[in-house]
Write a structure and sequence with these properties.
This protein has three helices and six strands, in the order βββααβββα. It is α+β, with helices and mostly antiparallel strands and about 80 residues long. A hairpin with a 4-residue loop joins β4 (about 45) and β5. The chain is globular and about 30 Å long.
Length: about 80
């Protein structure tokens, strides 16, 4: 199933990155993403609500190893 969806970040969101479940909140802090920008970044997830990609922060391990390509262009106001 290739259903991909975008939504705002939610409390408790986690992504599988580096073989571990990591909280997006912690990753945003580590990457020093400003609070004002965090609320604007779309979180890409699949139909199982598993996070696939968080812009500027991380991509899910399962997507790094696949041969699929996805081109996304984001525009911010």
């Amino acid at each position: 199933d290739l259903g991909l969806f975008a939504r705002p970040k939610e409390d408790g969101d986690k992504i599988i990155c580096g073989g571990m479940h990591k909280k997006l909140k912690k990753l945003f802090c580590e990457k020093k993403i400003p609070l004002s920008l965090r609320a604007k970044l779309p979180i890409l997830h699949n139909s199982k609500n598993e996070i696939i990609w968080a812009p500027l922060v991380a991509i899910c391990d399962s997507e790094k190893s696949s041969d699929k390509q996805l081109k996304i262009t984001l525009f911010y106001n």
